[in-house]
Design brief:
By secondary structure, the chain is an alpha+beta fold. The protein is 50% helix and 22% strand. The chain has 19 helices and 21 strands.
């Protein structure tokens, strides 16, 4: 059916059908709508009163928590004394807190203190017997069953309903064991109900379930637990009431909340019903006739023509649509369609050029259907022919690098189903080369909770990866060259400079041998010069040992680190401990050993210079296939998230040392973590893979 015929049928059927059904339909619907509004208003008023009671109970819980987690209360229940009662359980205290009753029980259930405040008289009364009766009726008040328990709700105190909170008494630091139970309450007497009525501007009442003031059969329906938990009854033609059951702390029916209001909404509905039905009947007839004419004259004829041209656009038969003259919406729509087509062509061309230049493409995965759409740009980078249509998902999974494919299969399902996805993946090109792509995506669901799909972009980062690898290799070679140069300098200092200085020292010491009558002052000056040479020789050897530690070559990594800690302890006076675990018979590559030694050396130096620590602990643990180096101190700590470039020159935070440690760990394929915060010390953990296999036979399952 054409749009014109459809519009004529819809308009005629709607309006002429409404004319026939108007009276019968609106007569009941309007009144029922106002009755629903009336019921909603009553329900809302019930909720307002319930919220007011809940708010009072919440405030009471807050006060109970303050008193129950108060050291004075805790000590009083542990060692009862009159000073606590005289200082805190006073008429002024209970009056300012709007409390009516308060009691303290120890862990054996023995009542230690019980008070009731009479607000009308302003006096404080002993309430031991009423509290004993209330606890006897509800023993669950003293059996909270938790370290820091709390129960709150309605209970009866001397036959009157009362908002009660039972709170376990602990110390202010929430430590135990519990000293007992604190009970606080507000009596829901007539004054309290009147205050709630004035606060909510409603006629409020609290009745017992067996009260004769309730409508017949209402109490049984509320206590049976059926329905919405509240009932609305029309009391008279002018009054409607809402009733809700309130349960006590034990879950038993306690009170019925009654809220009354006038039936003004119902009466307004009756008046409006009569006016609306008559008006709509007259308006409907005139509007229907006018609608048929104007819709056909100004809309249908033009819309149907524009729709036919748009259909031709989809078939490729047209490049543009006819622009209608005028300033109405249909004319604007025709111009907008042409403008959109022009912008779409330009955007398509720009997109193609931009994606090809930036090596960026889009992709879409449909896991439930097992399909994947990959932008022709990505397919072209890999050398594959792309149809520009969805392809089998298994086809593109097969083109992933085997390691990445296995890693994706091992990942937990929740990570793959996350709202956002970001992965660096390797894809095999047609020529056999491997290209790196940075893939970012977002999970989406179809309309109505349909099939799930992932939509995202892929950026070719192969050149960035190659550049990073080149930089890493260059840094490694630079550090190797640095260590080699250090070794040459250390060897030259030890073998040449130190030896020459030693020869010169011996010459100074023996230059006067065999000479008679040598001046004592001259001999003293030569001895002093020999002493200077001895100190110089020691400094040169210390410098040579620092450039290339001989302990590492002759004793191995474990003993070299132990010696390093001992030397640090002797030189600085700090407490430095070392522990090596699982290092017996372990073969560590020389490059790995020297870099771990340098990281430990730098970490100990940072702790000594910057942390202000009194103790440093160094641990080296073998956890196949990694060595875990841990350096912890009890110093001042720092913020490890702050940018190293923000570090002041004279600050108490190491800067370049940490950068050097991270660089060394990264060059070995490991990583370095720093756990620190101001005032809580610092822990540096380096996890570094080591070369060579374990030579000891006792390998744990983790090793294998």
């Amino acid at each position: 059916m054409s749009l014109r015929k459809t519009a004529v049928v819809i308009v005629c059927t709607t309006f002429f059908g409404l004319l026939l059904l108007l009276y019968a339909m609106f007569r009941g619907n309007i009144q029922s709508g106002f009755d629903r509004l009336e019921r909603q208003a009553v329900t809302e008023n019930l909720r307002r009163v319930q919220n007011a009671l809940a708010r009072d109970l919440k405030n009471l819980e807050g006060m109970a928590a303050d008193w129950g987690l108060w050291d004075d209360t805790y000590h009083y229940l542990k060692s009862p004394n009159d000073a606590y009662v005289e200082a805190n359980l006073t008429a002024q205290s209970l009056g300012e807190l709007h409390l009516d009753v308060l009691a303290l029980f120890d862990t054996t259930g023995q009542l230690q203190a019980a008070r009731r405040y009479d607000a009308a008289e302003g006096v404080l009364l002993d309430a031991s017997q009423p509290f004993a009766d209330m606890v006897a009726a509800m023993p669950a008040l003293l059996r909270l069953g938790a370290w820091e328990g709390r129960k709150s709700g309605i209970a009866f105190f001397e036959g009157q309903p009362c908002l009660v909170v039972a709170q376990t008494v602990l110390t202010s630091s929430r430590e135990g064991p519990p000293a007992g139970t604190l009970l606080m309450g507000q009596i829901l007497d007539a004054a309290k109900v009147q205050a709630i009525s004035e606060l909510t501007l409603l006629d409020v009442g609290l009745l017992l379930p067996a009260s004769r003031e309730l409508p017949p059969g209402l109490a049984g329906k509320l206590t049976a637990g059926h329905g919405t938990g509240h009932e609305i009854r029309v009391l008279t033609d002018e009054t409607v009431g809402g009733f809700a059951l309130l349960r006590d702390i034990s879950g038993n029916p306690a009170l019925v909340l009654a809220v009354g209001m006038s039936r003004s909404i119902h009466h307004q509905g009756r008046l409006l019903e009569r006016a609306v039905v008559g008006s709509l009947m007259a308006i409907g007839i005139m509007f229907g006739l006018a609608m048929l004419y104007f819709v056909e004259r100004f809309i249908l004829s033009r819309v149907t023509g524009l729709g036919a041209e748009i259909a031709q656009l989809g078939q490729g038969a047209r490049r543009r649509v006819t622009e209608f003259a005028g300033s109405d919406e249909v004319s604007a729509l025709s111009r907008t369609v042409n403008l959109m087509l022009d912008e779409l062509d330009a955007a398509r061309n720009n997109y193609v050029m931009a994606t090809r230049a930036a090596k960026v493409g889009v992709w879409e995965l449909l896991p439930d259907e097992g399909l994947a759409y990959v932008d022709p740009v990505i397919a072209g980078l890999l050398g594959y022919d792309s149809p520009g249509l969805p392809e089998p998902l298994a086809l593109w999974l097969g083109r992933l690098h085997p390691e990445d494919r296995d890693r994706l299969r091992r990942e937990p399902r929740d990570k793959l189903d996350a709202p956002t996805l970001e992965r660096e993946l390797r894809l095999q090109a047609v020529g056999g080369e491997t290209l790196w792509f940075l893939c970012r995506g977002r999970a989406m669901t179809g309309l109505g909770g349909g099939s799930r799909r992932l939509v995202g972009t892929a950026v070719d980062i192969t050149e960035l990866k190659q550049a990073a690898e080149s930089i890493r290799a260059l840094s490694g070679r630079l550090m190797q060259a640095q260590e080699s140069e250090r070794a040459n300098i250390a060897r030259d200092l030890h073998d040449n400079v130190a030896q020459d200085l030693s020869s010169l020292k011996i010459a100074y010491e023996t230059i006067l041998d065999g000479l008679p009558d040598v001046d004592a002052q001259l001999r003293q000056r030569l001895d002093a010069s020999a002493g200077v040479l001895a100190r110089t020789i020691a400094s040169v050897r210390e410098l040579a040992y620092g450039l290339r530690p001989p302990n590492l070559e002759h004793l191995g990594l474990d003993l070299a680190l132990r010696r390093l800690c001992q030397e640090m302890e002797q030189a600085s006076g700090l407490g430095v401990s070392y522990l090596g675990v699982g290092l017996e018979g372990l073969d560590v590559d020389a490059d790995v050993a020297i870099n771990i030694y340098r990281i430990a050396q730098e970490g100990l130096a940072n702790a000594r210079k910057h942390a202000g620590a009194s103790r440093i602990d160094l641990r080296l643990i073998e956890s196949y296939p990694k060595l875990i180096l841990r350096i912890g101190d009890d110093g001042c700590g720092f913020d490890p998230d702050r940018d190293d470039r923000d570090c002041p020159v004279n600050g108490r935070r190491p800067c370049m040392g940490l950068v050097n440690m991270r660089e060394r760990a990264g060059l070995l394929g490991g990583r370095l973590r720093i756990v620190s915060s101001p005032g809580h010390g610092t822990t540096v953990v380096a996890e570094i893979p080591y070369a060579g296999a374990l030579t000891h036979a006792d390998q744990t399952p983790a090793h294998r």
